Amino acid sequence: MFTKILIANRGEIACRVIKTARKMGIKTVAVYSDADRDSRHVELADEAVHIGPAPSKESYLQIDKIIAACKQTGAQAVHPGYGFLSENSDFCDRLEKEGIVFIGPKVHAIQAMGDKIASKKLAMAAKVTTIPGYTDVIESVEQAVSIADGIGYPVMIKASAGGGGKGLRVAHSSAEAREGFVSCQNEARNSFGDDRIFIEKFVEEPRHIEIQVLGDAHGNIVYLWERECSLQRRHQKVIEEAPSPFLDAATRKAMGEQAVALARAVQYQSAGTVEFVVGKDRSFYFLEMNTRLQVEHPVTELITGLDLVEQMIRVAAGEALSFTQDDIKLNGWAVECRINAEDASRNFLPSTGRLVKYQPPAEVPGEVRVDTGVYEGGEISMFYDPMIAKLIVHAPTRAEAIARMREALNGFAIRGLSSNIAFHAALLQNPGFVSGTFNTGLIAEVYPKGFNAAELPHPDPQLLVAVGAAVHRQYLERNASITGQLPGHHYAPENDFVVMLGDAQYPVSVHNVTGGLQVTFAGKTVEVLSDWQFGQLVFTGTIAGTPITLQVERVGLRYRLSHWGTQADLLVLGASAAALQALMPHKTPPDMSRFLLSPMPGLLRELAVVPGQVVKAGEKLAVIEAMKMENILKAEQDCVIGSLMAKPGESLSVDQVIIEFK
After folding, report:
1. Which residues are CB-contacts of 29 (< 8 A; sequence separation ≥ 6)?
2. pTM > 0.70: yes or no
3. Could you say which architecture CATH assigns to the domain 461-581?
4. N or C: which end of the chain has fewer CB within 10 A?
5. Highest-pLDDT range among 2-11, 567-576, 599-608, 642-651
6. 182-202 per-position pLDDT tens digit
7. What pLDDT is stored for residue 394 in this prediction?
């Protein structure tokens, strides 16, 4: 067994590998860029080596620097994590030539299966069901449009070396095929250094279900059940679960056996994932194989009891699998939410900045798990993926797992930048998700322009009223205790208020009881019991005997409550003040329609217009690159370009003016 390994990655996956290595008694080496000098994975590792500037192409993608770090520290093996060099056969080959073990599959498997064109041909030869399409390299835009026209729309345009949603577009017309081909090539060239593109038929109303496989150097290959990954946005997974609520036993077995056959065809060693697209009738088609550890691997670990990182390390060290297919049990249900730095109200655009507050829910072995690479006070950089953490729960049944995840999300507090926590909470109560009848189009259908927590109605607004009234009473008591009162002139907080929630007003009466407060309103009385103190973000306690977790903060004169995906602002006033508040005029926000504003922080890659140019609705105005994704800004209506307020190559802040229209 190895005594020291290097992790050629960053963030949560680097921390994840370090955790298992430490459990196995193996020392670890971290590598880091300028932007990651103070990162959590650097702190956790036994040693750390600086490998270059912030851009990944100058640091984490530099094979020579990583090999030099191995030699400098005496690392015997390298775990690549996911992304970066994890599926780079040249990296694997270089390591082998230097006598350093790659903790992953062998070169021939990466070459055969990492290349999506070659893997599809190999799958067809192995009699694995595949999607109709054009698998040869496409040389030009004109050829791409011709092929797409021939296959029939919609089609999927994909980078051969792609992954993580990069270098992928769905086209519904010739115009979209033309534009999508160019964008895919650009993203693939920038992210992977390989701009080969292929096209295949897009299966409508599809489900994305993948099979986890594990093989060793002794010819043993098993599958570890499936993961349901159909909840996606822009082809990137949002919520994953294991097993799938859609598969029956026969389909599960058939997909698993095909995945093993494909892995066996390339003598696969290590952990890998065979991805399938599954139709409404449970017909399934090979999509691609990822020759690496997947982001969503924790859900498989929780239903099987296996540590996949440990298995990868043992296989790389030459050990045989210690179990057979019959030994692998399916225990309970697991759900994973990817907590990302993105603004759902701005159509999920990236959000960068400092984590002023980072308070994840407490981990409970076998029930709640948090995989993260950040800490409070740390920074989410524009140079890398927007992931903050992965929140994973496990329970005996799917319904219990969903309920456990909803409560865990209620207690996950992040401030300083936008996150998608509320969006996850809303998805978990979507009828399509709860029933298990969803497909990959659910998010685009339900939230075509993003998600705003303030617009999601709470299923029990009276619960929010009770908490708001109790919190306000504690606020008044706190004020009274810190103002310094003269003997005989003691101020006692009022007991009667009006809670204003939206257009509704709730007269309430609040009194102290042991362990909390008694709140009377709407003809009923409930006890709100909690040891919550003013200033704490997370409120935990019981209401009428039912446990509750939500987030509370003071915003101006209001209390902002976040619960089950809803963000509600409550105003608590005396009766006379409430009557006057109803007469206050509403301030209209300024008209910014004359400007093109940057919807996210990022790099202005291109300005596609010039002053005086007449632009039609739908035409490209600018391209912004953020977190390795290319975002095209288009005109919402016909217009004339006035002044250009920013230059290509400039780093933009959110809402910065790019173009002024005449």
Report:
1. 4, 5, 6, 7, 45, 46, 47, 48, 49, 69, 70, 73, 75
2. yes
3. 2-Layer Sandwich (3.30)
4. C
5. 2-11
6. 999 888 888 778 888 889 888
7. 98
**What pLDDT shows up at residue 483?**
64
Please give the helix or strand (H or E) that residue 169 lies within, else none.
Answer: strand 166-171
**From start to end of 330-402, where are the E strands?**
333-340, 342-343, 349-350, 353-354, 357-359, 368-372, 379-380, 387-395
- The mean of the pLDDT values for the chain is 93
Q: What is the pLDDT of residues 369-378, one digit of tens each?
A: 999 999 999 9
**Whether 255 contacts 209, CB under 8 Å:** yes
**C-alpha dist (Å) from residue 284 to 128, 131, 275:** 10, 9, 10
Q: Residue 631: name the closest of 613, 658, 661, 610 by CA.
A: 658
**Residue 241 annotated to the active site:** no
Beta strand 4-7 with 27-33 is parallel
Residue 489 has pLDDT above 70, yes or no: no
> Which residue spans of the chain are classified as CATH 3.40.50.20?
4-103
Give the phi and the psi of residue 499 in degrees, each rounded to 5.
-95, 120
Which of the listed CATH numbers 3.30.565.10, 3.90.780.10, 3.30.300.130, 3.30.470.20 matches domain 207-453?
3.30.470.20
Residue 637 burial (10 A CB sphere; 0-12, 13-18, 19+): exposed
Cα(321)–Cα(642) distance, integer angstroms: 66
Helix/strand/coil (H, E, C) string of 53-98?
A: CCCHHHCCCCHHHHHHHHHHHCCCEEECCCCCCCCCHHHHHHHHHC
The gap from C-alpha 565 to its chain's centroid, in whole angstroms, comes to 16
Other C-beta atoms lying within 10 Å of the C-beta of residue 4? 17
CA separation for the pair 469, 573 (Å, rounded): 10
Per-residue pLDDT tens digits for 575-612: 888 888 888 888 888 888 899 999 888 889 999 999 99
**What is the sign of the dihedral through the CA atoms of 630, 652, 649 and 62?**
negative
Rg (CA), the chain: 27
Backbone angles phi, psi at 336, to 5 degrees: -125, 135
